[in-house]
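User: Hey, quick favor. My workstation is busy. Could you predict this chain's structure for me?
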Amino acid sequence: MNIIVAFAKAENAQNIKSILSRGGFDGVITCSSGVQALSAMDDLGSGVIICGYRLSDMLYSELLEDLPSYFKMLLIASTDRAPSDADNDRLIYLSTPLQRADLFSTLNLMLEGVHRLKKKAKERRMKRSEADKKVIDQAKALLMERHHMTEPEAHKYLQKCAMDSGTDMLETAGMIISLTNI
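Assistant: No problem, here it is.
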């Protein structure tokens, strides 16, 4: 699973990264700004971001607002910086000083939650109705005809457009059909 560590001070990010790597979490990406973190999240698609209260260019709350749908945030901060929006299911808070066991168990739970979320979304996609499948097939046929794509290329293009626009594949297919009918 993907883990991004974002703190304003690069040394704090490196310290968390080294703790994680000693705990068996590999491939951790470090950032010092919210913009870097968002870019990394777009590249990875899913995972957990571990961050402090303040990054070099924004607060955790601003980053949380732009958090991609398959990411969860683990905020590590002092108790006086505890988040007030505790009802957010995409944010978990751990206070400093941080216990290694707490970090590892919380991170494992969050990664499992992201995995379950993606699995449920995949199951929903697999249970499309015949009418939904026809709309997607019609959009693919239009792409194949007008842009000389193969069926796999058209499918991949639909998926990419859906991800880029933050919509599901059915809605994207509907948009493509409506745009070609103009």
